[in-house]
């Protein structure tokens, strides 16, 4: 079998690795695989669309792959430069370089009459095109990544307008300039923080007022929503985020994993020395930084006046707009759109990502074309999900009999619901999606199996650490290398990683808030509810058997 991979970001590299090593796990013939990358180096977004002092917003334990762990000497949150260096080491460790064609652009992918695909590509600097015939294709990059620029009337009045993809260094802010940042996500927060380190005159960050993300099953979400807000309020006097005193959206969060700019946003709203504040802070108060400068938070603008250059907003009762009414008008010198990207696949004119209805990876009509890494979790990280997607797709190509049925009704448990006009329609809940893919591959061990592994393991402390990491830790991919078709081949490798490296993430968490409220209470409450429902369903099934009627399961299907 021959397979083409498009894109040398983390998703493409991990897909390539599982393709060329699949025969070691699945007892099949080796796969011949080639990766095509337009740029002259690997790394994808982390190498080619980054900026000064950028770092990952998810921890190194989560963003690195299951069988190639980060150095203990690395910081918890890697800079983009360090992460790209990690990817280089990953390529060397798994001998990927001989399979990678850099500076090579895929122009077209056409289906062949007798099955398979014809890849037409062109090397940089060459006027000739070449062909590569293959049986399957993994799309791990949008060849055309276009900045998403929403319309803002009067934006042409601003002297300098750029998209965040064009921002690279602090020196681009200039001196004594008013900076307008449109959006409030992680990148916007990073850029806002960098602006605070420069001799800027004023920095304004605009956010959208959107409805909160909804899920099909809300009870567990309500618990964690209440838990997060209450804990944040106890710790820092704000339910929005750690130290974020302004900017709540629809009484929800614009919860942000990058909080470098938060002190500058919150500084004008620091709490007064009220009795409630003193009582709370005497118990469990994290000191709030009090910077001398501040970022003016604002709602989304309506327009920029074409004659005066003044920024205007729609009428609103939001507290940040009330504050702005008492300040001088905003006349931006530099406008930065931090509004994301639109991806397109010109080499696949007849197929779009929206057709990938099977686990958000491939379409039921043609599993030989996969989209890896095009999901987006609000918490968590994309690279580990890409690893699980690659595992499932390669398993489907080579040993589909080892997969459990990929039931479409399971998707409601991990897909996020979006407004119809939302730019992003591919959100997933990280923990639920990771666990679902593991279940599909029969890679998710049961708790009793984990206990047995811990008792039998030769790794020191595994008898109690392994079950606790499994139960209390996030769904790190290493958990799903203990069993199943992709079980690590080196004896006790996954156990060692969990007991040594990932155990530290449990130790750091703290007892009452990190373990009791975050893990033990929901497991006991919702585990009890699940057990009660299972018991009720079993009794109803027994009752129907006694009466001779049809027996159905919880999904309304006959048993």
What would your notes on this structure say?
By secondary structure, the chain is α/β, with parallel strands linked by helices. The protein folds into three domains: 2-146 and 341-404, FAD/NAD(P)-binding domain (3-Layer(bba) Sandwich); 149-337, no CATH class; 447-508, no CATH class. It contains 15 helices and 17 strands. Helix 5 links the parallel strand 10 and strand 11. Helix 12 runs antiparallel to helix 13 (462-472). The longest helix has 36 residues, at 512-547.
- Regarding CATH, which class of the largest domain? Alpha Beta
> Pairing-aware structural class of the strands and helices?
alpha/beta
- Supply Rg: 26 Å
Percent range of helical residues: 25-40%
**Strand content bin:** 5-15%
Mean pLDDT: 83
Family: Belongs to the FMO family.
GO molecular function, one term: N,N-dimethylaniline monooxygenase activity
Organism: Podospora fimiseda
Pfam family, one: FMO-like
Attribute tags:
559 residues; alpha/beta; FAD/NAD(P)-binding domain; 5-stranded parallel sheet; 17 strands
Short description:
This protein is of the alpha/beta class and 559 residues long.
């Amino acid at each position: 079998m021959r397979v083409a991979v498009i894109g040398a970001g983390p998703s493409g590299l991990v897909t390539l690795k599982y393709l060329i090593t699949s025969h070691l796990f699945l007892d099949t013939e080796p796969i011949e695989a080639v990766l095509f990358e337009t740029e002259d180096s690997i790394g994808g977004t982390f190498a080619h669309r980054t900026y000064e002092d950028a770092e990952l917003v998810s921890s190194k334990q989560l963003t690195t792959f299951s069988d190639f762990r980060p150095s203990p000497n690395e910081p918890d949150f890697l800079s983009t430069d360090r992460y790209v260096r990690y990817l280089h080491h990953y390529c060397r460790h798994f001998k990927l370089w001989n399979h990678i064609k850099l500076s090579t652009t895929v122009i077209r992918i056409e289906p062949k009459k007798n099955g398979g695909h014809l890849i037409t590509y062109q090397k940089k600097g060459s006027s000739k095109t070449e062909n590569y015939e293959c049986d399957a294709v993994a799309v791990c990059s949008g060849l055309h990544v276009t900045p998403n620029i929403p319309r803002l009337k009067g934006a042409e009045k601003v002297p300098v307008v750029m998209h965040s993809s064009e921002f690279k260094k602090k020196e681009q802010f200039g001196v004594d300039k008013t900076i307008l940042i449109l959006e409030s996500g992680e990148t916007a927060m990073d850029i806002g923080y960098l602006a605070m380190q420069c001799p800027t005159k004023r920095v304004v960050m605009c956010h959208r007022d959107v409805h909160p993300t909804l899920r099909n099953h809300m009870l567990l979400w309500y618990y964690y929503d209440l838990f997060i807000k209450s804990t944040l309020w106890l710790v820092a006097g704000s339910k929005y985020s750690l130290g974020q005193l302004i900017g709540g959206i629809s009484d929800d969060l614009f919860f942000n994993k990058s909080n470098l700019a938060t002190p500058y946003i919150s500084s004008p709203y620091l709490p007064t020395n009220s009795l409630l504040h003193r009582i709370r802070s005497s118990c469990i108060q994290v000191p709030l930084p009090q910077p001398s400068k501040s970022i003016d938070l604002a709602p989304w603008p309506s327009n920029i006046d074409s004659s005066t250059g003044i920024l205007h907003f729609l009428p609103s009762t939001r507290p940040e707009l009330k504050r702005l009414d008492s300040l001088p008008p905003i006349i931006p010198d530099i406008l930065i759109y931090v509004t994301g990207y639109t991806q397109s696949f010109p080499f696949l004119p007849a197929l779009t990502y929206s057709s990938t209805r099977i686990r958000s990876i491939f379409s039921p009509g043609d599993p030989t074309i996969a989209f890896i890494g095009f999901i987006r979790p609000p918490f968590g990280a994309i690279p580990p999900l890409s690893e699980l997607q690659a595992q499932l797709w390669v398993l489907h190509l080579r040993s589909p009999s080892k997969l459990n049925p990929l039931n479409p009704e399971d998707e409601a448990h991990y897909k996020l619901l979006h407004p119809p006009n939302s730019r992003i329609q591919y959100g997933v809940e990280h923990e639920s999606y990771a666990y679902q893919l593991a279940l599909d591959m029969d890679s998710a061990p049961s708790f009793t199996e984990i206990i047995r592994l811990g008792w039998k393991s030769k790794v020191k402390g595994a008898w109690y650490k392994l079950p606790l990491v499994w139960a209390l830790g996030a769904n790190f991919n290493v958990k799903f290398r203990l069993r199943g078709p992709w079980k690590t081949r080196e004896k006790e490798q996954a156990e060692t990683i969990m007991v040594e490296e990932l155990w530290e993430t449990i130790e750091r968490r703290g007892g009452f808030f990190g373990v009791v409220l975050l893990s033990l209470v929901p497991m006991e409450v919702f585990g009890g509810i699940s057990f009660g429902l299972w018991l009720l369903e079993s009794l109803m099934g027994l009752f129907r058997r006694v009466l001779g009627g049809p027996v159905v399961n919880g999904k309304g299907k006959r048993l």
